Amino acid sequence: MVDIEARREELAEAMWRVIRRDGLERASVRNVAREAGMSMGALRHYFGTQDELLAFAMRLVIERARGRVGALDFSSRDPRQAVEMVLREVLPLDAERRAEAEVWLALTGRALVDPTLRALRDESYDLLQGLCGWLVGVLVESGEAGPGLDVDLEAELLYAVVDGLAVHAVVRPERSTAEGVAALLAHHLDGLCRRA
To answer: 146's torsion region: left (phi>0), alpha (psi -120 to 50) or beta?
Structure first.
C-alpha cells in the first residue's frame, strides 16, 4: 500500500531539487514529475496543480524545522547552550538545512505575488519571531541575561540576526560559511547574555 503522505513528501523533495538546480521558474509539474521518475498524470494524483505542490513544498520546510526543534533534548544543557542549540536548527549549517533555506528563499520571493505562499511565509516568520521571543525570555528567567533586559527589543534583534544569517548563508555561501554563521550566532548570544 502506498503511503500517500510519504509520496507527497518525495514529490516536494523532487521539487526542491529542481528549484535548487534549475530555479523556481523551471519547477513545472512536468520537470518535477521527471525528477521524481513518474508521469505527470501520476503526480497529479497527489497534487492537482503546481500551486498546490509549491505550497506543500514550502509547508514541508516549515514542518521539517519545527520537527527538528521539537526533537531536541535540553535536559543536559544550560539555558544558554539550549538556546543556541535551538537556533542552530533553523540556520543552514548543513546540507539538509541549506537545501531547505535555498528553497525557502526562492519561494519567499514568489510569495510577493502568491497569496498562498505569502500566508505560509508570514506563518513561518511569525513562528520564528515567537520562538526568538520565547528564547530571550528563557535567558532572562534563567538568569543568563539580566532582568532589566528589554525582552521585546532583544527578541526582535535576535529574530533579525537569525533571519539575516540564514539569508546571507544562502546568498553568499563563500562569505557566510556554516562555521562563520555559527560563530556569529554564538557571539550575538554571548553579548545578549552580558546585557542587563
So the answer is: beta
